[in-house]
Amino acid sequence: MKKNKRSFGGLGQLTIPVIALALLILFNLVRDLIFIYYLKVPNYVSFFSIELTKNNMENMVLAGNLISIINGASELAILAMGMTLVTAACGGQDISVGAAAAIAGSVFVKVLKSSSSITGVTVAIAFVCACIVAMLFSSFNGTLVAIFKIQPMIATLILYTCGRSIAYWINGGATPTVDSPLITAIGGFIPGIPVPTPVLIVIAVALLFKLIFKFTSLELFTQSVGINGSAARLNGINSTFIKLLSFIILGVCVAFSGSIGVSRLGLINHETLLIDIEMDTILAVAIGGNSLGGGKFKIGGSIIGAYVIQMLTITLYAMKVSSTDVKAYKAIVIILLVVIGSPVVKAKFEKLMSNIRRSGQSISMKGAQ
Amino acid sequence: MKKFRALLLVVVLVISSVLCACGGGGKSGGAIKVGVVNNPPSESGYREANVKDMEKVFSAENGYDLKTSYSLKNDEQLQAAQGFITEGVDYLLISAAETTGWDEVLKKAKEAGIKVYLFDRMIDVDESLYEAAVVSDMAKEGETAVKWLLDQNLPEYNVIHIQGAMGSDAQIGRTGALDEQFASGKMKNVVQQTATWDEAEAKKIVESVINSGEDFNVIYAENDGMAKGAVAALDEAGITHGVDGKVVVMGFDCNKWALRELLAGAWNYDGQCSPFQAQIISDLIKGVKTTSTKKIINEEKGFDAKALTQSDIDTYGLGE
After folding, report:
1. What CATH class does B138-273+305-316 carry?
2. CA–CA distance, A171 with A108 (Å, rounded to integer)
3. Which chain B residues are within 8 Å of A328, Cβ to Cβ?
4. Displacement of CA B102 from its chain's centroid (Å)
5. How many folded domains does chain A comprise?
6. pTM for the full model?
7. Which of A25, A121, B28, B318 has the highest local Cβ count within 10 Å?
8. Are B235 and A68 in contact (CB < 8 Å)?
C-alpha cells in the first residue's frame, strides 16, 4: 500500500493503470521466483522469457508470454483508443464494436474472396471497403446519439443485437477461409521483421491519433463537448458534429480490429470473431482512468488498460486457470481496480493522508517540545 | 380421401409392424408432401449443409413436395408444425429448437395420420409419437477419434485438449472418450481448456502452453475452427505438425477447408458430424430401408490424412 500512497497524484490519471500493470508484473515475478528457487521445478520457463525462434514460414520471430500479451491485445488496444474518444465526447459507450468488427471482418473477407488473386492492392481495397462499411454503421450509431440524443448504450444496443446476423448475410453460415501469405503476414509476421504485425499496426494507429491531436483541436473540442455540451456550443463548437465524428473515428478503429482479427487465422466466423470484446474495451477505458461520464481523457491510459486486461488473461492461462473461470477472476481484479480508482475512495484516501501528515506533524512538534 | 388413407396407414402401423407401414407410404401416386421444421441455415455451417441436403433429397425429381419452415425459437417451430398439420402434409420432419413442449403437436399429427420423423435432435416425448429419430452420436464421434489416436501408437501421448462451449452436446460427447484416457493414465492431460468454439481463444491457449515450455505432441480440438487457431500458434512458434510433423492435429466437423488441410498433410484427423440425415429418412419413407429401433444413429466417419481423397472432400465436406 505504501507504493500506492506515493503514486497517487504523481502520475495523475495514469496512476491506476500503471499500478495495475506493476502489480501484475510483480505477481508474475514472485511466481517465477517461487517456481525457480523454492519449488525448484526443472526446465521452468520464466513468464518473462522472450526468445527468437524460427517459425514454420522460415522467419525469425519473437516468442514468449510478453509477446503474446502485446500481440493478443492489439484489437482491444485499437478499439479502446476509439472508444475513449466516444466516451469522452458522448459520456457513454458503444457496445456494438464486437458486432461491427464482425461485419467489417466479413466485408474484408468477402472482397478478398471475390478477387481472383490476393495482392497488396486487393488487400488495400478490401480494407477500404471494410472501413467504409464500418464507418457507415458507426455513423448510424453516431446519428442516433448526436442528433436524436439517444443514450449511447441504448442506441448501440440495436447494432449489438443484429450485427452478427448482418455479418452472416455477407458470407453465409459456413466459416469462409482466405489462404494467402499476405494475409498471414498481416495477422502474423512480415518476413524479416520479428515483431508481430498487429503490434506494428497498433503503433501506427496510436501515432495517427497523436498526429491528429497535435495538428487539430479535436482533443480540446472533444473534452469541452464532453464536459459541458451547451457551453461548448455557446463557444462555437459544433457538439453534434464532434459526437458524430467520434463515432466515425471509432468506425475506422473497428475496421482495423476486424481486419486484424480475420487475418490472424485467415478465417471469418461471424459468431466468434472478437466476441465479448465490447465489454473488455469499455473496461480498458475505465482502467485507463478515463471518466465513463465523458470529459477529460487520455488515450494512453486506455492503451495501458488494454494491455492490463490481456496480461491478466495470459497470467491466468499460464497458471492453468480454467478458461471458464478466467472471467470470474478478471471480474474480481477489475472490481478492485475500479473501486480503488473511484472518487469516493480517492477522497477518503486523501483525507486519511492529510490526517496522517497532520498527526505526524503534531507528534514531531510534541517531540520538539 | 388422403386423410382416410393416412388414417388407414396408422391403423396398419399399430396392428402390424413399422415395416409394412413404411412400405405403403411411398408407393401411392402423386408427390409425397413433406413438411420440414428446422433451425435456420444461418445457425451454423452444419445447418447450412443440413438444409441444402434436405432440399436436394426431398426434391420434385425424387417425387416429393417439400415445404420448409426455419426458426431458432421453439414456439415458432411449434406453430409451423401446427400449420403443416392443418395443411395436410404426409410426413413431418422436425429438428426441434428445444426438447420440450412437443407432446400436443405430435399427438395432433398422429391423429391426423401424419408420420413424424425427428432428425439431428431428439425430443422428450413418448416413442410412439414418432416413426424414427435420425441423430448423431457425439460420444461415438469422440470414441472414433480417440480410437484412431490410440491406433497411431505414439510413444507417448501429451495432449492439449481444446473444448467447445461447456455443456453443449458436441462438447460433452467429444470430451468423454478422451477423459477416459486421461483417467486411465494412457494419455497425459497437458492442458484441458474450453475455447467456447472461439478460434482466437484456442490460439491463445496453445500459445500459453508453448510459452510455458511444456512438452506436447497431440492437439485435440473439438471443432475445425479451434484446430485452425491451435495450428496458427504452432506455426508461429515453429513447431511442425501434421503427417510428418511433431504434433498430431485433430479436429471435428469436416468443413471442406479443414479437409483440404488434411489432404495437404498439415492436419492428421478430422471427425465427421454428419448433417446428412435426409437420405436415411427418404429411404424409410419409401420403404427402401427399415428399422427395428426408433433411434437411428447416423453413421459418422473419421478421416485420416493419409487415406483421404479429393472425392471424400467433395462428398463429405461442409461449406466451400
Report:
1. alpha beta
2. 10
3. none
4. 21
5. 1
6. 0.85
7. B318
8. no
